[in-house]
């Protein structure tokens, strides 16, 4: 299997992981620092941006929560294997100011050091390259043997052309394909009301076309794990009790560590 490929957050180009860089990047929505992936050309500007942001954090202003980004950055680089013991001479200052100085010194090490990309991989079934799971695009794809639209993974390179195939299938299809695609989105938690209430295909088809455009444009991100419609959960019998769990392995799982690094635990 070929080397895993990583998509640059700045230019969108996929390159082998060995040519990619993990630069802690501020997630504006959460205010947390998270892994950010860049090509060699764009890693430098990304690192400079992170450094400037950390240097400008106002740790004195109680009205602003500038500690959270700093603490999540500190936790992230430690989780990726960079420790403050690597800083020589040690950072100066007290309290949060010292944490900031440590973070700046660790960021300076990143000019010559690569942070690992630790998340699981997902396989693009268009080109058979693997990409980090967070970068894989989940799309509907018509599977001839199944005779239905199925959940498919595509990398950033393959997503647009595969969605164009799905769109062509929708445009050329009849009532059956329209209904199947609407049910696909329903399984992913996207309800198209006009389909659910039984409107004719000519009403539902343009709504599906618009939904495909949202997937293509990235405004609608389908999750890797299929969601199950609530009514199916409610109408299904209670599952058997789960078997006793395996003895816990020593230390947190990889996924647990990732979640923790992202501040989700
Ligand atoms: Zn780039
Ligand atoms: Zn691909």
TrEMBL record:
Region described as Disordered: 232-254
Pro residues: bias regions: 238-250
Protein name, entry field: Uncharacterized protein
Domain of life: Bacteria
